[in-house]
């Protein structure tokens, strides 16, 4: 495991933990979800595949996630996007395909907008752009909104964590500076989106809306009948790996 040392942020320094494999390009960078880390099923499966195939690969933990520094409840969408850009700037070599899971689908778009010359393709798995506003804030009853505004945070129940997730007013307000689904998105590279029809955390319609807002003319959406939010079953992993590899081959041949 290696680390990027951070400096110059308003929140101070810190470090981002990452794992990197050398190999053929284009490279692949995995971007995890909200409150997830790089040891997850999809990240680990992609790492194993890329290592065996001799393809460049990077996975990392956002600040406040996994073994990177920082407190989760202090994090924001903007800072996590900065983490992804730092990985592109300081660790990645050559053009990269970004693979974003859930929140990582939002982060991959923000990173592509920040570094269009470095990002040659995107693969979103249950991509969740704008989730802090559309899926959290808009879904909160008025009483919960008052509580988070007055106290600064609340714990939101989650099927993925018995303790729930802390949702801060800072996360909501800062997230509004990075909303993408309100206007055309200036991303021109090829994009592949995968989404389960039975996803109860991020409705598949979010990926359909994302597809429509992207300015790229090479965008496809693969809807999985019976698929849930995780999309981590063996068939799901095989589909993800195949999608990533096919896109990498197309980009190299193109």
Predict the CATH topology.
Rossmann fold
Name of the level-1 CATH class: Alpha Beta
Largest sheet: 8 strands, mixed
For the record, give the distance between the C-alpha atoms at the N and C termini, rounded to a whole number.
34 Å
Report the total helices.
Answer: 8
Mean pLDDT over the full residue set: 94
Strand content: 25-35%
CATH-derived architecture: 3-Layer(aba) Sandwich
Q: Provide the low-confidence segments as ranges.
A: none
Radius of gyration over alpha carbons?
Answer: 17 Å
Q: Roughly how much helix do the residues carry, as a percent range?
A: 25-40%
Outline of the structure:
With 254 residues, this protein is α/β, with parallel strands linked by helices.
Explain what this protein looks like in three dimensions.
Helices cover 36% and strands 28% of the residues. It is an alpha/beta fold and 254 residues long. It has one domain: Rossmann fold. The chain has an eight-stranded mixed beta sheet with strand order 1-2-4-3-5-6-9-10, sandwiched between helices. It has a two-stranded antiparallel sheet with strand order 7-8. The radius of gyration is 17 Å and the shape is globular. The mean pLDDT is 94.
């Amino acid at each position: 495991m290696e680390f990027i040392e951070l400096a110059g942020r308003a929140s101070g320094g810190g470090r981002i933990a990452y794992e990197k494999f050398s190999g053929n390009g284009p490279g692949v960078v995995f971007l995890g979800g909200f409150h997830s880390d790089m040891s997850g099923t999809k990240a680990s499966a992609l790492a194993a595949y890329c290592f065996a195939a001799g393809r460049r690969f990077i996975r990392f933990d956002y600040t406040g996630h996994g073994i990177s520094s920082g407190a989760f409840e202090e994090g924001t969408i903007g800072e996590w996007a900065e983490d992804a850009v730092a990985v592109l700037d300081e660790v990645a070599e050559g053009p990269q395909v970004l693979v974003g899971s859930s929140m990582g689908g939002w982060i991959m778009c923000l990173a592509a907008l920040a570094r269009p010359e470095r990002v040659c393709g995107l693969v979103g798995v249950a991509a969740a752009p704008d989730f802090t506003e559309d899926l959290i804030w808009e879904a909160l009853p008025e009483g919960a909104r008052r509580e988070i505004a007055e106290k600064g945070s609340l714990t939101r129940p989650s099927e993925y964590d018995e303790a729930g997730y802390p949702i801060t007013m800072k996360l909501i307000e800062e997230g509004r500076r990075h909303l993408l689904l309100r206007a055309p998105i200036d991303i021109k590279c090829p994009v592949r989106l995968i989404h389960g029809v039975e996803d109860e955390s991020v409705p598949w319609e979010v990926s359909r809306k994302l597809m429509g807002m992207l300015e790229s003319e090479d965008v496809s959406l693969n809807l999985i009948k019976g698929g849930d939010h995780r999309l981590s079953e063996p068939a799901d992993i095989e589909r993800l790996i195949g999608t990533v590899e096919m896109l990498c081959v197309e980009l190299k041949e193109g």
